[in-house]
Amino acid sequence: MKINSLAKLGGVALVTGLILAGCGSKSSQSKKQEISWMTPSPIATMDTSKMTDLYSAQVANGTNEGLLRIAKDNKVNPGVAKSYSVSKDGLTWTFNLRHSKWSNGDPVTAKDFVFSWQRTVNPKTASQYAYIFANVKNADKISSGKMAVSKLGVKAEGNYKFVVSLLKPQSYFKYMVTQPEFFPQNPKTVAKYGSSFATNATKNSYNGPFILKGWNGTNDTWTLTKNKNYWDAKSVKVKDVKFQAVKTPSTALNSYNSGKLDFTTLSGTLAANNKKNKDYTVYPQASTSYMEFNTKKIPALRNTNIRKAMALAIDKKQMVNKVMQGGDITPKGFVPADMAKRSGKDFANEAYVKAGTDYNLKEAKALFAKGMKQVGKKSLSLTLLGADDDDTKRATEFVQSQLTKLPGLKVTNQNIPFKSKLTRAQNQQFDLVLSAWIADYPDPSNFLDLMTSDNPQNDGKWSNKQYDALMKKSETTDANNESARWSDMVQAEKLLMNQQGLVPLYQQGQAALIKPSVKGVQPFPTSPQYDWAKAYVK
């Protein structure tokens, strides 16, 4: 999802927890199993049909559970579904559910998934995330009001078998169902509270490791308390995760240093100043900050040499180490490192094109001169558009300073509120624009699809027929051939970087402080969210 700054604010990247660590030892049981956790923003809603923000989703992933949970190296572990199978044509997914319970004691059944998915795509619900169901049969027709919700391609065969019909094969559908939009909902609870469903902690039912308590709908503190009805409750060691929404980073750091918090995020100079702190850590994110060219509006930007020159003129290492300073890393390409792997090999390594992310000012100047001669121009004046938050302002200032080293190129910065920037970018009202994307699911297509010619997120309108053909092939002809599909996407990424369809600036990382006594908390593989199901205090 495109995010609202180049900082760690995030979009709605909603993937369920990565389990890397084991359970607590006997010594952990002698400690008070309570963790105090900082979050930059309060909860907006706990209705998974209407949820759009990162921090509400973070809580939902602690209090609820979908069919599957994502695990190490992007494998999936059983969730509510104890097993699943896929038809040979890849169009039918059958999930066999375990006997589990809601926090109110009701059984969690296949009908709860049918109800939830139908509710989300129902236009009356006005879910902003209904589009994510697009590959479920009839979902788009239902969302547009052209078909009844009962026609959605899902059905319950008894209480414990849930069957999904897709429009086309989708190998990464197993990742999709780990996200909050795909979680079940208790029909009785939704009916009981109507429009006020999930607007506070008590007006909801939970089927995950924890129950939400103490949230009245607007306050900045709440607690996740161990759910005794969770099917794997015996593995949950922590009794309470106490949250504090702290909007000012320096205030959060002071609370951490005074022992009021066990965890806090860091950014900018606070991150830089704490790198030698023994509690300092960085959680890599499947998120790329990048610059797009408006090839529709500016004829000169259709020239590959000019685009490549501008990419080579930006020192990404300096940007990460001296400008952003918040745990970010230099990019290997558009698809982030350590997000998608096959047979132990990282997609970012296999698709790596050095020239696409390199820094070489001498070569940049030569290519720019060549490109300008090809387009018949001696000078070029461009405006660089970005949001008006502090991190993005620093980023635009740095990029501007780098690009103006190219003889004949003048760059003027324009920083405006994010919503205005987003609208202008979507309407191609820019020359250059800084954007960022955070993965919704750990598959290369989540990034590569953005740059196909007809994708609405392709703000710069870069277009390449070979690229489009490779991505289409990965989704059709090769959709059920994992090796061939992977190869299609590797070729597409290399083509994108060789043609410099965009400029990756850095891969985002979340710098943080966490007390050494807190063990087993695991970051999600895509976004700055965390899983406490296997956490403990030692």
Could you give the topology of this structure?
Elements (H helix, E strand, L loop, with lengths): L33 E6 L14 H10 L4 E3 L5 E3 L2 E6 L5 E6 L2 E2 L5 E2 L1 H12 L17 H5 L10 E3 L4 E5 L7 H4 L10 H7 L16 E4 L7 E6 L13 E6 L3 H9 L5 E3 L2 H6 L6 E14 L10 H9 L3 H9 L16 E2 L2 E2 H4 L3 H4 L3 H15 L4 E8 L2 H14 L5 E8 L1 H9 L5 E7 L6 H4 L16 H11 L6 H17 L3 E13 L3 E2 L2 E2 L6 E2 L4 E2 L1
Parallel strand pairs: 1-12, 17-18, 17-19
Antiparallel strand pairs: 2-3, 4-5, 5-9, 6-7, 8-9, 10-11, 11-12, 13-20, 14-19, 14-20, 15-16, 21-24, 22-23
Helix pairs in contact: 8-12, 16-17
Q: What can be said about this structure in brief?
A:
The chain is an alpha+beta fold and 538 residues long. A hairpin with a 5-residue loop joins strand 6 (100-101) and strand 7 (107-108).
Task: Describe the model.
- A hairpin with a 7-residue loop joins strand 10 and strand 11.
- The protein is built from 17 helices and 24 strands.
- With 538 residues, the protein is of the alpha+beta class.
- Mean pLDDT is 91; it is low at 3-29.
- Helix 16 packs antiparallel against helix 17 (482-498).
- A six-stranded mixed beta sheet has the order 13-20-14-19-17-18, with helices on both faces.
